[in-house]
Amino acid sequence: MQIHVFDTHVMTASGEYIHFDVLVNNENIKEVEQYAKQYLDGLGVAIDNIKQSRCNFCHSELANLEVEGDIASQGHSIIRL
Fold it and tell me: What is the domain-level CATH number for residue 67?
């Protein structure tokens, strides 16, 4: 499965730096920002506490089995860096 990697950087208002990749297939590429927001919400980071953020396309690659499973079950995979 070919996937697309979106390199995501967030700086919270309190100064916390969070770096992660959002991995999606062609069908879910328009949902990348939603998946990033959901991930941050799961970490307890409210959108109104974000000072700056960027989520940029990085590259495409072949997915490993774990990422394929994540995308099949939830539409995306997140890798915390």
Answer: 3.10.510.10
